From TrEMBL:
Phylogenetic lineage: Bacteria, Pseudomonadati, Pseudomonadota, Alphaproteobacteria, Hyphomicrobiales
Domain SnoaL-like: start-end pairs: 12-108
UniProt organism field: Kaistia terrae
Organism superkingdom: Bacteria
Protein name according to UniProt: Nuclear transport factor 2 family protein
InterPro entries in the record: NTF2-like_dom_sf, SnoaL-like
Amino acid sequence: MQNAVNLSSLRQAVEGNDARALTSFYADDAEIRVIDQDHPPSRPLVLKGKQAIGAMLDDVCGRAMKHHLDDGLMDGTHLAFAETCTYPDGVKVYMSAMLELVDGKIRRQTNIQAWDH
């Protein structure tokens, strides 16, 4: 299947800051929930649809930072990974993500992230 996500393609896109490739992994009706210091579990940030997710990925990949996919696991319907991002000034962001896959595309994703202050 074209643009089906797997750990290798995900690592390449994440570490290459490739928003276009990352966006291609999502189903048209995908949803991302983000939980962090600004969006607690009872009020997560929710992005619905490939277009909204792509805009967020364009923003993140356009920032001056390095992304590293630390670890990941995948079975037929789920993918989980940890990612560390580092800004030029040394500030780090850690994210843990759980993804639900349908036909090789990401349908639902939950990100838990923490930032240095």
